[in-house]
Specification:
151 residues, mainly alpha, 6 helices, 64% helix
Length: 151
């Protein structure tokens, strides 16, 4: 990065923000703003390189969980009340993580239907496919990291 570039106030203060760069300053302890921007750009490059790998890991993990649950509970394990949990008692309110997993799957089914309507012009009652619902689940949904714990 050229030393002739004006880092303050336009680049660091205005476009990226001092607050954002403070963590880079603490971790990398650069000698100047050129080193600080180098650390920032290096981190962006590393994150960009890891992003495809993280996507593949997320899909693989989701499919592995789905496969295990299909073996135990059948293809549409996520529909109805098939998915049980350790503290399951008929008529009792499920724990919050279980409710959130169910909510995530219900939203995935709705997203599947909406996608079929908007992309393909489907009309009437749409029955979501199992694979379509699983693919539409949200890995960033609250408590999605606990999906394994409820099985």
């Amino acid at each position: 990065m050229p030393a002739t570039l004006q880092y303050h106030p336009i680049l660091i203060d205005g476009l990226i923000s001092k607050e954002r760069l403070e963590s880079y300053r603490e971790v990398f302890q650069p000698h100047d703003d050129v080193g600080l921007m180098g650390a920032y750009l290096w981190n962006a490059h590393v994150c960009g390189a890891l992003y495809p790998v993280m996507g593949i890991v997320e899909v693989t993990l989701r499919n592995a969980i789905d496969h295990a649950l299909q073996q135990a509970l059948g293809t549409f394990w996520w529909s109805g009340n098939k998915l049980k949990y350790r503290s399951f008692a008929p008529g009792a309110m499920p724990p919050t993580p279980v409710l959130r997993v169910r909510e995530n799957l219900a939203k995935a089914a709705d997203k599947y239907k909406l996608d079929k309507r908007s992309r393909y012009g489907a009309r009437g009652h749409i029955v979501p496919s199992h694979a379509g619902v699983i693919a539409k689940t949200d890995p960033d949904h609250p408590d999605s990291s606990r999906k394994l714990a409820v099985a």
